[in-house]
Amino acid sequence: MDYKVHIDAGKEDCYFQYVQPGATFYASYQVLKGGDGMCGFAVRHPNGQIVHPYEWRQSAEYADQTSSGGYYAVCIDNQFSRFAGKLVNLYLSVIRYDMWEKYAKEVEELDMNIKNFTHSIQFVEHNINEILQYQYHSRARESRDYNLLQDNNAYVLRWSFVQILAIAATGTLQVYFVRKLFEVKDNSSKTRI
Question: Which spans are transmembrane here (predicted)?
């Protein structure tokens, strides 16, 4: 298991991992960022004894090849840093080699099935890649069509506006000339007889 944990300034965090009897326990940490880039690391055996004492370092690791079983405590200490929190990568691993050997024998027996399985997976991967390519091309066509639609819409709106202005100008001009045609001139300057 791989964790990225944040340890606040002046704090200590402990993590517990169950290990079966006869299994191999491995723990390591590395400070990724924060403060001086160092913190303390300790491992406590299930019987309560500290098997890896605190050391103020950037990274450390611990391995127990033949565990008696129980809950191990892995503690990360940031108590010396009073102002800066730390981002720490914590890796815990429990391996049962007896189960691993049994698994390896099963894999050897099923070697033929694994080859068939690998072929099937490659076939599925090939089909998925083709589908992704088709989706990419479909999205590209959709984008191109949408842009064409937007351009056509702008073109129609622009020319519709020009035609509305032309019709309004023509109507105004016609009303002006029709009024001018029927305009009565007042001749008050005529002489009376």
Answer: 156-178
